[in-house]
Amino acid sequence: MYAVIEVGGKQHSVKKGETIIVEKQEAEEGKDIALDKVLLIVSDDKIEIGQPYLKGASVTACVLKHIKGEKVVSFKYRRRKASHWKKGHRQKLTRIQIKDIKN
Prior knowledge:
4-stranded antiparallel β-sheet; about 0% helix; mainly beta
């Protein structure tokens, strides 16, 4: 059984017991969260598709750790103008483990 969920504007395909990294969630480490934006659930021979989300479906996950992503460097340079700038950014992320998929 697997599901496609939407977290932080991105879609993730998840299975029970799987660990994924998503946009930062406002929950403490070790706490459970319910993800209710479920787009699709596939179990054995049955496929359920939402319009856009499935009603009554949810995915339960445990927050493992809050982390930062890789540094992304943005550099702009104008030739012969003595003008340039450099910015760095590290996205805040959350590592979660999928506990259960409910219909």
